[in-house]
């Protein structure tokens, strides 16, 4: 796989105003973090939809990892919006870059402004499940299990390789309830479309547009770098159950 390596000097970066330089570093790091969520969610969704039959514990682990990633992604998206508010709108940079952004960057920013101007799923997930565990909402779920419900745990021989499915089932139901959907499949689909396909992509498009507007005038060197043995994303495998041998 060939990738372009672009190098800037610190001297050229120092020509940027301090507020702009800070924003450049912040959104570059956010793009890196959103890339992580993009790849891992894509692989998990692809495994669940298009690859061979999974065992019962693998199905539970796939759902568990999906829920965890969506909750953590919600926190990262909220943080990204705070960077836009404080580093872009609260400074003169929004006026400076307004006419420099391509249409897709401007459209992505408008979509983000509209989304975060009203109550939204990102804040619900972030506040209740991503970084804070609301015991009341968990309690609402566990108080409604029927008496004949089976609570399952899978325990391999290594302590931290176990999977307590009953914990995942509780959290999953609390998260899915927060989407407003009654069908679990539709709830997962809403999470995927709203957070992954929608907001994550809008942030990446807007952030790349800002970096292009800011860094394009700076001198830079470009070279091609070859990276060997890159797997196709559709061939990548998530870690479910693993052998942890010495």
What does this structure look like?
This protein starts with a strand and ends in a 20-residue tail after the last strand. Helix 3 crosses helix 8. The mean pLDDT is 90. The radius of gyration is 21 Å and the shape is globular. The chain has one domain. The chain has a two-stranded antiparallel sheet. 63% of the residues lie in helices and 5% in strands.
Fold blueprint:
Elements: E1 2-7, H1 10-13, H2 18-50, H3 56-89, H4 93-97, H5 103-116, H6 121-130, H7 135-142, H8 165-178, H9 184-215, E2 221-226
Label this structure with key terms.
two-stranded antiparallel sheet; mainly alpha; 246 residues; 63% helix
Distance between the termini: 33 Å
Q: H/E order of the elements? A: EHHHHHHHHHE
Helix content: 55-70%
The Rg value, from CA coordinates, equals: 21 Å
Strand percent estimate? under 5%
The main sheet comes to:
2 strands, antiparallel
Number of strands: 2
Walk across the major sheet and give the strand order. 1-2
Total helical elements = 9
Summarize, please:
The protein has helices at 10-13, 18-50, 56-89, 93-97, 103-116, 121-130, 135-142, 165-178, 184-215, and strands at 2-7, 221-226. It has one domain (2-142, 152-228).
């Amino acid at each position: 796989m060939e990738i372009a390596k672009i190098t800037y000097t610190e001297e050229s970066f120092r020509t940027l105003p301090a507020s702009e330089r800070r924003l450049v570093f912040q959104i570059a790091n956010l793009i890196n973090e959103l890339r992580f969520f993009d790849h891992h969610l894509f692989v998990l969704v692809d495994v669940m939809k298009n690859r061979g039959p999974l065992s019962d514990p693998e199905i539970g682990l796939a759902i568990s990892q999906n829920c965890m990633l969506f909750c953590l992604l919600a926190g990262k998206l909220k943080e990204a919006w705070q960077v836009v508010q404080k580093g872009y709108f609260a400074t003169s940079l929004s006026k400076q870059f307004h006419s420099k952004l391509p249409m897709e960057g401007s459209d992505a920013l408008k979509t983000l402004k509209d989304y975060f101007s009203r109550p939204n799923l990102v804040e619900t997930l972030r506040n209740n499940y991503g970084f804070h565990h609301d015991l009341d909402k968990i309690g609402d779920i566990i108080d409604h299990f029927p008496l004949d419900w089976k609570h399952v745990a899978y325990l391999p021989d290594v302590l931290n390789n176990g999977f307590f499915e009953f914990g995942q089932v509780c959290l999953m139901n609390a998260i899915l309830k927060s989407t407003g959907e009654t069908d679990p499949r539709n709830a997962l689909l809403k999470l995927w479309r709203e957070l992954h396909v929608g907001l994550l992509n809008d942030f990446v498009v807007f952030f790349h547009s800002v970096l292009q507007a800011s860094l394009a005038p700076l001198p830079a060197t470009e070279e091609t770098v070859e990276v060997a043995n890159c797997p196709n994303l559709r061939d990548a495998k998530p870690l479910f159950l693993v052998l942890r041998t010495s």
